[in-house]
Structures are given as structure tokens and as C-alpha cells.
Amino acid sequence: MIDLRSDTVTRPSRAMLAAMLDAETGDDVWGDDPTVLRLQSTVAERAGKEAGLFFPSGTQSNLAALMAHCARGDEYIVGQLAHTYKYEGGGAAVLGSIQPQPLENAPDGTLPLAKIAAAIKPIDNHFARTRLLALENTIGGKVLPAGYVDEAVQLARSRGLATHLDGARVCNAAVASEKPIAALCAPFDSISICFSKGLGAPVGSVLVGSQALIESAHRWRKVLGGGMRQSGVLAAACLYALDHNVERLAEDHANAAHLANGLAQIEQVKVESQATNMVFAQFPQAHCAPLEASLKERGILTQMLYASRFVTHLDLTRADIDTFVSAVKQYFAQHA
Ligand SMILES: *Cc1c(COP(=O)(O)O)cnc(C)c1O
């Protein structure tokens, strides 16, 4: 199968499974799993932070971070398109009693500084207490401009807010901008990093930040049901991914550029954007469902919408991309 729906669809390789098989384990709820401890300290070091904490999912890692930063009745400023706001079931509000203050994202994924400044509420019993600015990098595949991040974080700090980065794909951002991961994490108080996306692990995210923040998130992880036992088998996959699957993200980015170029040559397709491992393209509405079905018959999985997203990853080769593009070409040749 050629699966372009997401970078979450990768399967653990034999070498990754071998690393999992060999993992030394213990009960991590007791803090006894040496592989989990090694993953947490390794990721903290790579991100330039004091401490790390292993989570079963990025959703839980983000939520525990929000709950560590904000108390009941506090508020976080976030983009309308941000994962922590739009794609996590409203967890901050539902489970954290934290009010989101969503702002419209600019086309490059940023939140305009003037809108952030205007959304920060004065200390007044009428208002929720604005406590946190949450950004996302990459967002829709796009790398946030470094200058923007510095300015936004500076603004947040100057108004007494903490800052969190949903860095699910921060490794893609680091590779694309040819910077160390720590450089992209440096401005933020906390960062959540996913291992089950482009890094190719089956499960897992790591939250990094100060010792104090991670201690608070540790308590919330337990409350949220995220305490795991011999999770060293999972942490071993993440350690393997850190060693083998970070630099190679450049291949995914090159494949996404190749895919965008290929689609751009098809008259009926309008490529909207390509950045890191994602391509967004528009297809004639009437053709979306039949095209998706026709591709599926050829073993190509997509989610064809008027505005479709295609994601490259380590289980896709350059030849797979070519197969996909020529299948789309053939479809439109037959349905002109
Ligand atoms: C995938 C993702 C997450 C976390 O998702 P899980 O499926 O819970 O691991 C968070 N933020 C972004 C931007 C993501 O893409």
C-alpha cells in the first residue's frame, strides 16, 4: 500500500522492533524503567531543557502541559487551526477547566502579535486569567519564522505569560531550517514532541521543560491515566527513532517537493502549498470521491477532499510518489 494520508501510518521497522525487543524495562510508575529514563533525559538534552516526560500520545502530552501551566479558570491563547485547540476534543476545557482564547491563524500559521496583545485580559474578576501562549511548529507543514517566534515569546513574557510549543513535528522544522532542535525549543517554557509521526515510532511523545514544570505534568499524567508500566519497550522505539530517523526527514521533504511538482503539472489540480513533508492541493469537487476510489483500487490510500493533504514519510519512496502522480494523471486523462 502507498499511504499518503498521514505520517502516522508508518510501521516499526525490523531494526526498530529489534531495539524494542532488547529494551531493559522496569515499572515506570515507580520511576524504575531505565529505558524510559534514558529517553526522557536524551530528549531533554536534545531540546536544551532540564527534564522530559514520556507520554502515550501527543494529545495527552499537550494537555498535561496546559494543565501544568494553567489552573482552573485560567486561559491560554491559541490558534484556531492549532491541534491543541481544534483536534484534541476540547480537552483543555473539558478536562482541564482551562478556557481557550482562539485567534485566527495568518496564512503562514502565525498568530499576529497585535491580536495576541489585544487578547491578553487585564486582571479583573470579569475575566479568565490569561496565563499561556501556545504555538505550533510545524503548523500545516509550515515552519514558523524564527524571528516571529522570538517576538511572540517576548511579547508573552513581557505580559507575564508562559509559553508552550506543540512541537509534534519540531524535528521536521529543525531539519528543514537546518538548525538544532534545541534552537527551535529555546524560546519556549515547554515543548511536546511526537515520535509517532515522521520519526516512525509506533507510540509516544515526550514533553520537555523545567524540572518544576515536568514534576507538575507528571502528576497530571497520572491523573489523565497516562502512567505506564514497562514502557521501556516503547521508549526504545523512540530512542531508535532519534538515532536513525531525524536527519532522514530531509528525504521526506524532498519527496513532498517532488510530489508537489508532479501534481502541479496536472491541469485539473491546483497545488496550494508545500512545506516540509506536506502538500496541500485542490481537486475539482465532483472528482474527489471517484478519484479516491480509483486510487484505492491501485493500492494508493488518500483522503481526497476539495482541499486535500498529502503527507510523505519513511514508508514512502520516490517511486511511490511517481506511482501516485501518474495514477492521478491517468485518472484525469480518462475523465477529462
Ligand atoms: C499528531 C499531533 C499531535 C498529537 O497527536 P496524538 O495523535 O495524540 O499523538 C499534536 N499536535 C500536532 C500538531 C499533531 O500533528
Automatic annotation (TrEMBL):
<dbReference type="InterPro" id="IPR015421">
    <property type="entry name" value="PyrdxlP-dep_Trfase_major"/>
</dbReference>
<dbReference type="GO" id="GO:0006567">
    <property type="term" value="P:L-threonine catabolic process"/>
</dbReference>
<comment type="subunit">
    <text>Homotetramer.</text>
</comment>
<protein>
    <submittedName>
        <fullName>Threonine aldolase</fullName>
    </submittedName>
</protein>
<keyword id="KW-0663">Pyridoxal phosphate</keyword>
<feature type="modified residue" description="N6-(pyridoxal phosphate)lysine">
    <location>
        <position position="197"/>
    </location>
</feature>
<dbReference type="InterPro" id="IPR015424">
    <property type="entry name" value="PyrdxlP-dep_Trfase"/>
</dbReference>
<comment type="similarity">
    <text>Belongs to the threonine aldolase family.</text>
</comment>
<dbReference type="Pfam" id="PF01212">
    <property type="entry name" value="Beta_elim_lyase"/>
</dbReference>
<dbReference type="InterPro" id="IPR023603">
    <property type="entry name" value="Low_specificity_L-TA-like"/>
</dbReference>
<dbReference type="InterPro" id="IPR015422">
    <property type="entry name" value="PyrdxlP-dep_Trfase_small"/>
</dbReference>
<dbReference type="GO" id="GO:0005829">
    <property type="term" value="C:cytosol"/>
</dbReference>
<keyword id="KW-0456">Lyase</keyword>
<dbReference type="GO" id="GO:0008732">
    <property type="term" value="F:L-allo-threonine aldolase activity"/>
</dbReference>
<dbReference type="InterPro" id="IPR001597">
    <property type="entry name" value="ArAA_b-elim_lyase/Thr_aldolase"/>
</dbReference>
<feature type="domain" description="Aromatic amino acid beta-eliminating lyase/threonine aldolase">
    <location>
        <begin position="3"/>
        <end position="282"/>
    </location>
</feature>
<dbReference type="GO" id="GO:0006545">
    <property type="term" value="P:glycine biosynthetic process"/>
</dbReference>
